[in-house]
Amino acid sequence: MTPKTELLRRIQQLGFTVTELGLYLDSQPSSPQAMGMLRTARAEYLAARKEYEDNYGPLDITGVNTERDGWSWIKGPWPWEGED
Known about the structure:
By secondary structure, the protein is mostly helical. The protein has helices at about 5-25, 30-55, 65-70. It contains 3 helices and no strands. The longest helix is centred in the N-terminal third of the chain and has 25 residues, at about 5-25. It starts with a helix and ends in a 15-residue tail after the last helix.
């Protein structure tokens, strides 16, 4: 697996973790352990996204820096198209 693919997989795993912890906290909002886990997972998720987008381009429309890159969203390859 390439570093790009490994990083994308890590982002997917962290995104799943953040979503699941959020759902758990919907029913257990006073759990300090879950809240701590959510903070950690969210920070790791955002850092991994930033690393990916800095090196490989935006993952979705929110990652487009229009000030720096104009409308770079249409430049390929798209994240789901696989390896370059």
